[in-house]
Write a structure and sequence with these properties.
Layout (H helix, E strand, L loop, with lengths): L1 H20 L3 H29 L1 E2 L2 E2 H26 L1 H7 L2 H5 L5 H5 L8 H20 L7 H25 L1 H4 L3 H14 L9 H6 L11 H7 L7 H25 L8
Antiparallel strand pairs: 1-2
InterPro entries: ABC-2_transporter-like
Protein name: ABC transporter permease
Keywords: Membrane, Transmembrane, Transmembrane helix
């Protein structure tokens, strides 16, 4: 019953955050359009190179588009529901986390709906590239329709993995306070690298992106099975297991980190 009550409060906080953002409808629409254009322009730069050379390390334009779209949509799902985890530093520096400690619910559950983001632009951009990539590969006979529901499953597990990485990085802030530079490595740089096939990178780097910062399990590993038929259905089970393990480990780390939190005293 307590868990149900917490999630009821969580939904109320989300609705409140959405209403506050929709007070400025023009700003919301303009922001969504600009976000979509920025993301699409990033992919178009890669598409122009691939159009010239045909493929990179044996990966076609449609396959790389699939990797790009899965990563974008997984990130969007993570940032929609857990965006403030990525911005924990401001709560630690400004003492705003103290306010959340007074709420009758777990701190993480109170933190996540703060400044809830409706990322329409990213959804449209990622969805368009995903549909285009899938349509191209289906037309060539590379994949079948079964890839569509499996792709939705991969997006969800990918969001969980990205959230877990973000939460673990944010938790380090209980010791270091400043975490923005670290997030550039563990979230931004790692996620950008994983938008492309890991075979492009040195072995040590691809190993790093599959172990210490497991972003390779967000899109690269599932694409090997879904797009190329490498491995078997067990690959999806492994991905689900990785997502569960990452989430459980990051939550335990967060719980431990909370015991080390010291207020700013401001």
């Amino acid at each position: 019953m307590k868990l149900i009550s917490w999630f009821h409060l969580y939904k109320i906080l989300i609705r409140t955050s959405i209403r506050s953002r929709m007070q400025y409808k023009f700003n919301f629409v303009l922001g969504a359009i600009l976000a979509a254009l920025i993301q699409i322009s990033e992919f178009l730069m890669v598409a122009l190179v691939l159009h010239k050379f045909g493929a990179i390390k044996g990966w076609s334009l449609h396959e790389i588009g699939y990797l790009f779209a899965i990563m974008t949509l997984s990130k969007t799902l993570y940032r929609t529901f857990g965006n403030e985890v990525h911005h924990l530093e401001k709560y630690l520096v400004g003492g705003e986390l103290d306010q959340l400690l007074t709420r009758p619910m777990p701190v993480l559950l109170a933190l996540m709906p703060q400044n809830f983001r409706i990322m329409i632009g990213e959804v449209l951009q990622g969805g368009f590239i995903l549909c285009w990539s899938l349509a191209g590969m289906m037309h060539s006979g590379q994949i079948g329709w079964t890839v569509v529901p499996f792709s939705l499953f991969v997006i969800v597990t990918g969001a969980i993995i990205l959230f877990s990485i973000g939460l673990a990085t944010a938790t380090l802030g209980f010791w270091t306070t400043r975490i923005e530079e670290l997030q550039v490595i563990t979230e931004d740089a790692a996620r950008t690298a994983a938008q492309y096939p890991l075979t492009l990178y040195p072995k040590w780097m691809s190993s790093l992106l599959l172990t210490a910062i497991p972003v390779g399990f967000v899109n690269y590993i599932p694409s090997l099975y879904l797009l190329r038929g490498e491995g078997g259905a067990w690959v999806l089970a492994v991905i689900a297991a990785v997502a569960v393990i990452c989430l459980a480990a990051s939550l335990r780390f967060w719980t431990f980190g909370m015991t080390k939190y010291q207020s700013t005293g401001s």
